[in-house]
Amino acid sequence: MNFIYFLTLALQAALVFALSTFLFDMVHYLLHRWQHSRFALLREFSRWHDVHHKFLDAEINVHPNWAKANLWCHLVPEFIVSILGTLLLVVFFDWIAVALVILVHTGLFVLRVRDEGKDVNHMNMDRLNGRRGHVFVTPTYHALHHVYPNQFFSSFLSLFDVIFGTNCQIKGQRFLVTGASGAYGQALTARLKKLGAIVDTAKFGEDYEIDKYDGLSEKMRKADILVLAHGSKSDDCWTANYTSFVDLIEKFRVIGKDRLTPPEIWAVGSEIELHGDMGIESLKPYATSKQAFAARAREFYTSPDLTYRHIVPAAFTSRMGKGLMSADVAAALSLFFIRRGFTYVPVTYTTLAVWNYIRFRFIPWPKSVRKAPIFNKSA
User: Fatty acid hydroxylase domain spans which residues (predicted)?
Assistant: First the structure.
């Protein structure tokens, strides 16, 4: 009986802590929105929070001369909001669980005061990690909020950003898109522009050719995010779907190696990564090239030098053939998931892309999958 009670108490305390941080995240979001409020008091609260962004600036440098102001304008208000939010939960949870969480918040506050506001999430950083974290907020995740103050509001769990779609900066970001004349590329480009992105395109035969990418150097230097939406089902699938994808990613990685935020890549895969050619001879070149890239993409996905997103759509209507959804729906769903922090993006009505996540992340591909097949040699 005592064991069950203590287990229940521990679970309640964990839930209270998570909910109290979520309530703080809501206030955190409002502090940014209140910058332009018509009410002077709300604008003043927002200015207090702005002190915290001066303490840790957009270049992720800590400024000790702002430490005292950060204490009174950020740490103390943050502590008060956390305690009040936790106390509200006593209506729904055991008071002992609530008291334990208050002790945790108090301990964290004391440590932050002792360290003058510096902790694992508030320190000088020369380079952020491409792996931002998913469920829990990591130092890189919180640093991104200081780089992009209107995104990444979550403080402990990423729940707030997942719910409200504030997990990816799009407005003002510079995108370089391949395959922008295709159905998906056109739809995605249009939606990115509506969200305030600055979009440029990379055209095969004009800006680059296979093994000749120097013409893209300047565009890549200006780009924050590279979107690879080109591809082929017929003409030299291997070159279009594997070689060019890998070469462009590696070039963008080198160009962005000294940036504070690692280069970000969105690459369009396919559900054929999972089900293969299904014995259909005409699909073999396409399936082979897509599976080969998926095998290589696992390395990009786990690299700290990149933020890599693998987009896996089910068939959509395009020049390649008919699908049960339009390219615009596929683009809309892609952005829905990306804005919520997904790095593996399942755009599916078949559920195959969901199952493919297991294949993509956890089942090693044979090394032979990356070798160009003979039937492509003469293409």
Answer: 18-166
